[in-house]
Amino acid sequence: MGQEAIKRKYRILQPPCGLHCIKMNDIGVRIGRETIIEHINLHIHCGKLTVIIGRNGAGKSTLIKAILGEIRHTGSIEFRDMRDKSIQDLRVGYVPQHLNFEKNTPTSVYDMFASYISNVPVFLRKTKMLKERISQSLEMFQAQELIDRQLGDLSGGELQRVLLSIACDPVPNLLLLDEPVSGIDRNGIELFYEHINSLKKRCDLAIILVSHDLDYVQKYADNVILLDRTVLEEGSPAQVFASGKFHEVFG
């Protein structure tokens, strides 16, 4: 096994240290004269699953896009090592709600994965080392058997496991999941959350998930953020679900 593979394997198996923090300082987004989100101040720690909930149009996906740098925002986002208070580069992984592609595309899981992690066009060369790396990444989410399957033949749950594998190669500091189980059956949703729960325990990363699945949020989340343009409530699932603001939003 090469040095890069050894380093990568070590990072995958490195448990959360609890000393890395993503700080969002007064994040705001305006489109024209309309304020979409404002005064977002959050501390997101490694080893934690933080779930953002709220009504449709509350600004959840806008916040995700702001973190990704896809839309302009005010305020700042910092990644700090709390041991020495240093600011480091933030590496972000992302799983979208939907992936748009033609159902009859001949593109395989290997092709898509390789296009993300390799600078060599996949139609020019397939290497044993690259296939082994992809297979190991897929194995993290019990998806290694999908490596040669065409994208159009995957179920919703299978596709999400593949996208998770891509987003975690290499393991990011922050993993963003924007309603990733939309359209997936109940068994697939349960499996997805079990994978996320295992990931946060095994790897030194923080996870932010946007979700409408309140039963699963209550079961799996460490922290919950109730958003409606700004943060209405923040705390454990029990604290947020018992709050007056939660009952105002969800009735």
The major sheet is characterized as: 6 strands, mixed
Helix content: 25-40%
Shape: globular
What is the β-strand count? 10
Task: Return the structural class.
Answer: alpha/beta
Distance between the termini: 56 Å
What is the structure about, briefly put?
The protein is 35% helix and 26% strand.
Commentary on this structure:
The protein is of the alpha/beta class and 251 residues long. The protein has 9 helices and 10 strands. It has helices at 3-13, 60-68, 109-117, 128-139, 156-167, 186-202, 214-220, 237-241, 244-250, and strands spanning 20-31, 34-45, 49-53, 74-81, 86-88, 92-95, 174-178, 206-210, 223-228, 230-235. Strands 6-7-8-3-9-10 form a 6-stranded mixed β-sheet, sandwiched between helices. β1 (20-31) and β2 (34-45) form a beta hairpin. The longest helix is centred in the last third of the chain and has 17 residues, at 186-202. It is globular, with a radius of gyration of 19 Å. 33% of the residues are buried. Mean pLDDT is 88; it is low at 1-12.
List the helices and strands and how they pair.
Elements: H1 3-13, E1 20-31, E2 34-45, E3 49-53, H2 60-68, E4 74-81, E5 86-88, E6 92-95, H3 109-117, H4 128-139, H5 156-167, E7 174-178, H6 186-202, E8 206-210, H7 214-220, E9 223-228, E10 230-235, H8 237-241, H9 244-250
Parallel strand pairs: 3-8, 3-9, 6-7, 7-8
Antiparallel strand pairs: 1-2, 1-4, 4-5, 9-10
